[in-house]
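Exam revision sheet. Question 4 asks you to relate a sequence to its structure. Input first:
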Amino acid sequence: MKFAAKIKEIGRTYDGNIAITLEGTRINAEEINALSRFDRLGVEIKKYRRKRSLDANSYYWLLVGKIQNLIGSSSNSIHNMMLDRYGEFARMEDGSLIPFCIRDDIDYLEFPYPHLKPTQKTLSKGNRVYRWYYQIKGSSEYNVAEMSRLIDGIVSECKEMGIETLPPEELERMMEVYGRKMERTDR
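Answer key, structure tokens:
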């Protein structure tokens, strides 16, 4: 079960354990009651991030497929090119970029993961050349704003290639519907 909530209270029980009270509006009481029958539960609490729209994600992959059909590249390659142009860097907890160094003759665009952005920095070892890259976040980790930028970028590229895309008003409507969904889950 997943839901958005805020911590209402933190305290200690008589035996010294931590007790946390959560408050949320979209919690299924029946599921909570069913879970209360178990002695132990696995729990993960993390900072809330708005997720991107599954409709937006489906539309993005539809456009990746249209580009793939037109130019004949793999979907991994096209996806990695779009992430390179319009994506966001992955970062470590301290905010620093995540570096990778791989052989320069390896086609990083075919990687399903990690997604990489090349730099101009290389390293020679013997007769091999290695290139430094920075990791890019996968689109499944994007929030609404990041996904919107990625979709705007791929739509622009499709238009340049003569690939049909949603009319601007339909794209705007799709994002508005998603925005309203996000407002409801933020409450």
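Marking note for examiners. The chain has two domains: 1-48, 54-186.
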